[in-house]
Every structure is written in C-alpha cells, then in structure tokens.
Amino acid sequence: MILCFDIGGTAIKIAEAFTPEDIRTGARIPTPGASYPAFVAALRAAIAGASQPPRGLAFSLAGVMDPDTGAATVANIPCLSGRILQADLEADLGLPVVLANDADCFALAEAAVGAGRGHEVVFGVILGTGVGGGLVVRGELINRTGGFAGEWGHGPVAQRLVGEVALPAFPCGCGLAGCLDATCSARGMEKLHLHLHGTAADSVAIVEGWEKGEPAAARTIGLWLEILSGPLAMIENLLGAGIIAVGGGLSNSAALVAALDAEVRRRILRRFARPLVVPALCAIEPGLVGAAVLGLGRLKG
Q1: Reduced to 3 states, what is the DSSP secondary structure of residue 247?
Q2: Domain contains 107
Q3: What is the enclosing helix (H) or strand (E) of 133?
C-alpha cells in the first residue's frame, strides 16, 4: 500500500492506494503552511493512522521541484519552499517518497484511468484559476525529475489584436505580461469581458450567459476561444497528443470544452474524426489519483 497526499494551501487530502483502481480516500486535515516541523508532525500522524504500514509515500503538491537541484518552490506553503523536499521528507519520515506537481498528477491520472487511457501521448490541461498542464508519454511523466514541462500558461503569447479588438497585455503572476494564464484563465475571461463591455461578471455567469445565447457573453467567449485555441493547436502539432484532457473550473461546461475542441481541431495538421479536446474523467480527487499512480509505479516492491 502507498499512502498518498494531495497537499494544498489550506488542506491535505489523504488516500491509501493498493492499485490504480483501488484508491481509498480518507481524512482531510489542515495544512500547517508556516511550520515545517508541524507539517512533518501532521504527516507522521497520518502514517500512524493508516490501515497498514505503507511501503512508501506519494505527494501531489501545487509547486515545482527544480530538476537540477531538487529545491521546491511552493508559493502557498512557505515552509516547504527552498527545501530539497524529497530528501528532507524521506529523512524525516523514514519512508521512500515521490513528489509531483499537481498539474502533472492530474495529467497522470487522466492517462492512467481517465480520458487518456489507451493513448501514448496525453496532454492534461488545467483551465480554472490558472492555465496549466502536464504531459504524459507512454505512461510516464515527461518531467520525471521535476521541472516546468506542460506549463503552457506562461510566456507572452496571447494575441493582442483579435479582429478589430485591441487587448492589453494583462500582467501575470509569473512576472510577465500577456500570458495565457492571465488572459484565458477564469480570471482572464473576466478581464476580457470587462475590457469588451465595461461591466464586471464572474466566469461562471459569462459561460452560462454564452450557453443561453446572450450577445455580450457570446462575444467574450468568442474572443476567449480565438486567443486560446491557436496556442493549443500549436502545442498539439508539437506533441502529437492522442487526447487533450481538460480539468479545472471552466471544464465544468461541456459545451465550452466542445467549442474549444472544434476550434483547435480546425487549426491543427492532423485530422481527427473524433473529439481531441475532451473533459477530464477524473473529476474527483485527480491529485490523489495521480499521486497514487505515480507512487505505485515508482515504489514497487
């Protein structure tokens, strides 16, 4: 059994994984974000409370491990940033540890037991508070030792002129401006709507309005699709993914994902007679599922 943790800024979710199809979710505990000793103590308590001694630990966390140094950057859990986290946790917990970014775990979950099952190349896309992703090739994360692969939301590539509409380069949390994360995330969609119409609306209302045929929402979503589909089509041409699985809050609209699929497929070189961009199937706890797949694959024995 592998004990799995999905580490968020406010809560740690826990599961016991016996096989990729047998993942038993358990407790949810507060994340001690400011104190590393308190963080380790919480993990020790979870290990002690497991149904049987685990043979290893697998973590999904909203952070990045530097592939050269192993140092972690975890913005919403300050006590973990700067640490050589895998080595530190193995030393402090006395068990083998595997770590991956939460978007990578999402992609791995989709490749193993979700929409990407049976495909050699799976690109997992997050469209929600941010724009992110992860890449799985033949069942393995492309960035096995950590790093930034799949982070297509960052880089100043968002179109600034769409038809007759001139757009500002919206500032991004990464320090650049004009990133897809800043322009096509849920918050980005809201910025687009405000820029176009001068009125504020949240992304849920915008999508619902578009689904109902409201003209203002339709214009916003049309612009959003134009900006997002071009870069995603280029990524598909580069990767040759058999499926692009979409998670995050915006994926809750099947109609929006279908519209994105149509726009991407008409821009790519390969012709698909089936959908390429599809809603993720691991809608519940993909971080834990991905961590479980990762742990079961790497911590054999």
Answers
A1: strand
A2: no
A3: strand 131-137
Of the candidates 112, 111, 113, the one whose C-alpha atom is nearest the C-alpha of residue 124 is 111
Sheet holding 131-137, edge to edge: 140-141, 131-137, 121-127, 243-247, 277-279
Q: How far is CA 147 from CA 14, 30, 34, in A?
A: 24, 27, 24
- Is residue 182 domain-resident? yes
Residue 20 and residue 147 in one domain: no
Domain of 223 in residue numbering reads as 115-279
Task: Read off the tokens for 233.
Answer: 């089509």
Number of domains in the chain: 2
- HSE of 44 in the Cβ direction (CA atoms, 13 Å)? 12
Same domain, 66 and 209: no
- 3-state DSSP call for residue 120? coil
**Calculated CA dihedral for residues 202, 208, 211, 215, nearest 10 degrees:** -50
Strands 243-247 and 277-279: parallel
Structure tokens at 225: 């699709």
- Output the pTM of the full model: 0.93
The verdict on 77 and 210 lying in the same domain is no
List pLDDT tens digits, range 89-148.
999 999 999 999 999 999 999 999 999 999 999 999 999 989 999 999 999 999 888 888
Q: Return the HEC string of 62-90.
A: CCEECCCCCEEECCCCHHHCCCEHHHHHH
